[in-house]
Amino acid sequence: MKEPVTAVVPACNRKEATLRTLAVIASCDPAPVEVIVHIDGGNNEMEQAIQAAHPAVKILKSDQLLGPGGSRNALVHAAQTKWVANFDDDSFPETPDYFARIQRLVNIEPLAAMFSAASQPSETQFPGLMRLGVFSGCGCVYNKEWFMKTQGYVPLPIAYCMEEVDLSLQLHALGGIMVHDPELRVVHDRKPVTTPDEVLHAGIIANTALLPFLRFPIYLWPVGLLQLASRIVASVRAGWHAGLLAGIFSIPRHLFRHRRFRKTESGTAVISWLILRRSMHPLVAGGPRSLVQDPTS
Predict the structure, then answer these.
(1) The listed CATH number (3.90.1170.50, 3.90.550.10, 3.40.1650.10, 2.30.42.10) that belongs to domain 5-188
(2) Share of residues in the chain with pLDDT > 90 (%)
(3) Cβ–Cβ < 8 Å for 206, 245
């Protein structure tokens, strides 16, 4: 059976990148049954460009800046299908059979919470389907039934070190299995950040503290402090000084501002997730159903 798939793209100010992503998605065979774009911050010029080039694309907008996570929340909620293929505005399928590959995956592991695509050469080297602790944000496929059981993404203008790890932990704590497929491939057309600017680096530091604050039980906060210390040490060693102190001093305000999203997971779930994210484990296709639970149960 071929499951219908929705493709979603959060967009903000990168019009040309967004149009390229939509063009690649439109060229796939089979194509997704619907394509939805969320324009963050109400960019009218981008809306007009998308409507002109891709009139069948459904457009959502928000005048308020939600960040990529807030955009993805709106996109998944609007999707009419169970399976939702997520891209960045600058990431797109590597091959035209991308959605056919998703349909094959759904037949193999229909109860998976998430499928994660390969966007780097190292991610294509695995021998087959693998269970992982953190999915790829620039190319993944949500099982909407599982997504709706989580809190979704925390809306952050700068989402690095929060977006994928937070949702991954939430899914893991619910019993959801995230599956990496080395043959499900996306192109992430972005130059790697070698030296983050001050604002970006400050956001990364603050988000490193936000995740344990929101999800870890209090007795595991020392683990979060160690993670923060490790991040700071790594930044110093890499020579990333711009924004470091600003990020550290912004932590109390950052945590207070987002305290309403605090919903801790069990210590057992957090610890098992921390162990899982350090490695990947083979997942036997059509394997024991005890590994993959039904999100509706």
Answers:
(1) 3.90.550.10
(2) 81
(3) no
